[in-house]
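Input chain follows. Return structure tokens only.
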Amino acid sequence: MDAIFVLGNTHYPWAVIARFAPLWLSWLALFNIALSLYIDTFSSPLLYLFGYQQEQFIALFLLNSFALITLELCSNRFQYLSSRWVARIIATCKWFHDHHVFFEEIISSHDNNSLSALLWLSFIVAIYIVYRHKRKDLFMLAGGCLSSIVILSTFMIELVDDNFDEGLLLLTALVIIGLTSLSTIWLKKVHREMSL
């Protein structure tokens, strides 16, 4: 734990001095690991409000959301942060983490906590508002569509698992096909608008 903290603290000045985006990404990864290990070892005040799994999820959700927001705000000011691939990597890693926790929550418990669903929904709405209207980025919109399809499909499959019914399984498959088709049509329309 101390080694990662020391490595993260010695890595940060080099990321500032070098002005090299991959150093910032590696520093963010080290900070994620250090925060996870800290919560595993000592916990935080969030534990009393949300419980262990929610505590870690909320802390990493807030950290990575803050990193993505900061990157987007600083990308116009600093040239080395203006490449879109940096924001896309942060968002992809954030989606992976959020989905992993959300899947466990959907599948393992029948009393699903609405806090993680609310956080996920707020992130999807923010992705739509920012990357559809403010800073146009089709990759981020496609990630939001994929995220929505995967989460809704997981909910439906969990319903099928609890009450196994062939009709519900068919309905789930049709919903997946329908959502994918609607997403594709919408993304093509957005791409045409962005190309103009």
